[in-house]
Amino acid sequence: MTVPMLEWGAAADQAELAVLAVHGRGQDPGFMRDTARRFGPAPVRFVAPEAEGNTWYPLSFLEPAERNQPALDRSLRTLETCLGRLAERGFDAGRVVLWGFSQGACLLSQLVLTRPRRVASLVIFTGGYVGTEAPPVPGDAVLHGVPAVLRSIEHDPWVPRHRVEDTAALLRRAGAEVDLRIDPGTEHVITDEACAAATRLFTTVASRGAGRRAG
């Protein structure tokens, strides 16, 4: 599978982490790169795939999941392909952060809850699982202890607060260490606080990984 990707940040051979950055509907990897410029310095390599037509699936994530097929499954496979390529480049599961905004955050939420895998951490900006039925809580403790930053806006026009909170609850039940914050407002935006929280997470997780390798 050929997946167009944009990369930036620390050189691959110097980065402590890889960040798989997944854009929203109507956006492209350049949006994620521009957002990442609002983060503080961190030893990470960003890798951002591009959705065909800049859309990962056609309808709202609040619709029944089957109504977004086959695009939904195709997009999930795209992310799995990206993770496989990162592993080939030396970024194993413990060195990969999943970061998404809007539709990208929804897609990543769906990935970790329905196709669970061990990752270093999660950054979910304004999104939640896809469909009308909550997926079962992932088993096998693959998300146990995984730090997750979830951020959203109280009256976001596309993503209701309750879906973000429900997704956070599922992640907690799966064992993730969830940091959830929903700020007041009505716009579909990423706040400066969210960017700062992501940077803190990147640096904390990177330092843990560096310490393990040094030991």
How would you summarize this macromolecular structure in one to three sentences?
This protein has 215 residues and is of the alpha/beta class.
Structural notes for this entry:
It is a single chain. The chain is α/β, with parallel strands linked by helices and about 220 residues long. It has one domain (about 5-215): Rossmann fold. It contains five helices and seven strands, in the order ββαβαβαββαβα. The chain has helices at about 30-35, 70-90, 105-115, 160-175, 190-215, and strands spanning about 5-10, 15-20, 45-50, 95-100, 120-125, 145-155, 175-185. The protein has a seven-stranded mixed beta sheet with strand order 1-3-2-4-5-6-7, sandwiched between helices. The termini are far apart.
Radius of gyration: 16 Å
Helix proportion range: 25-40%
Number of domains: 1
| Fourth-tier CATH superfamily name | Alpha/Beta hydrolase fold, catalytic domain
Strand content is 15-25%
Main sheet: which strands, in order across?
Answer: 1-3-2-4-5-6-7
Question: CATH topology, anyone?
Answer: Rossmann fold
Output the number of helix runs: 5
Order of helical and strand elements: EEHEHEHEEHEH
Family: Belongs to the AB hydrolase superfamily. AB hydrolase 2 family.
Keywords: Hydrolase
GO molecular function: hydrolase activity
Protein name: Alpha/beta hydrolase
